[in-house]
Amino acid sequence: MAVARTMRRTGPTTLLLATILALGFLFFVLTPSSSSAITDTGSVVSSQQREDAADNILSPPTKPFVKAQSVREDGHIAPPPVIHYNLNSLTSTSDSASMNERVLILTPLARFYQGFWDNVAKLNYPHELVSIGFIIPNTKDGNTAAAALEEAISKTQSGPIGSRFASISILRQDFEPPLQSQDEKERHKMTNQKERRESMSRARNSLVFTTLGPSTSWVLWLDSDIVETPNTLIQDLTSHNRPIIVPNCYQRYYNNDKKAMDTRPYDYNSWIDSPTAQALADSMEPDEILLEGYAELPTYRTLMALLADTANPNPRREISLDGVGGTALMVKADVHRDGAMFPAFPFYHLVETEGFAKMAKRLGYEAYGLPDYFVYHYNE
């Protein structure tokens, strides 16, 4: 008698394999999924933290670009998948923390100050939404700074889960800085400004274009010698929902006349333009730049540093600016994505952060300042 086709293909081996597959499927379906994992230290990590947390306690690459490679059946590594990012759904709002908006803190670093890192570690914006990027000159002093930075990072990134940042990247400059000395007086000599600030522009551009990921909503530029800010710095600046906003940078010092600690303005690069400065620019050669804060080059611009109401400060008070400093500068990531960078060449006779404000304005973005909201620079 002929055997039916379906019966000819059914045997003990086939039935056994079918049973194993069915049991495996039932196990997969019925096993409850968990949104947490147990770390080697015994702490529970949420699925979001597990995805965002750094893979390395020192300097992993920017998270969105890390994609695991799969191995095919023939032993060859499969090509990386095509990843789609919908930047139209990316937000940068006045309620950044509640909206889970990611922040990228970027710092050019030539010297390491423990106070800087301690201040960053105390920022209370959810650390799982914060990535950090550094760029360090490839010099002897840079090597010293990098070693100290890595030690500080290691302590934070191996500490409690809630204190760890999503990722930290450390870049080393591939060009020589124009100044070997990082002494404050040497850095601020007028004769050194053009070369120094053009070099700083290159460093800033390298840093932002390397680390800016498709999930970044805000970029906070924070100089490595800013050692004191409110813990709510990120929330406070993003709450204004401005494309570019900068606080007032001051410095604490001992006032010999008062015999007591006092404060004084430090950053004069946040200003409102003046007819005098515009006339000076019109008379300059193409490669010349305008500088602020030097008696040899009076511009008569309105300086935000001198507009602070220290007696009755209103931290929410805003003013419109034409130039910005970079000691603490909050920028919507879309401003950088649209092409605003730090010109390493005279751009309308401006370079670095002041040139950035000019370029952003040409792209349709306005800059704002907070005269009564203070951050503090290290006092050498």
From TrEMBL:
A biological process term (GO) from this entry: protein N-linked glycosylation
Superkingdom per UniProt: Eukaryota
An annotated Gene Ontology molecular function: alpha-1,6-mannosyltransferase activity
Disordered: annotated segments: 176-201
Membrane topology: Single-pass type II membrane protein
GO cellular component terms given for this protein: mannan polymerase complex
Subcellular localization(s) per the UniProt record: Golgi apparatus membrane
Signal peptide as annotated in the record: 1-37
Keywords: Glycosyltransferase, Golgi apparatus, Membrane, Signal, Signal-anchor, Transferase, Transmembrane, Transmembrane helix
Pfam families registered for this protein in UniProt: Anp1
Basic and acidic residues bias (residue ranges): 182-201
InterPro entries: Mannan_Polymerase_Subunit (IPR052086), Nucleotide-diphossugar_trans (IPR029044)
Species of origin: Aspergillus nanangensis
Similarity comment: family membership: Belongs to the ANP1/MMN9/VAN1 family.
Record's protein name: Golgi mannosyltransferase complex subunit
Main location: Golgi
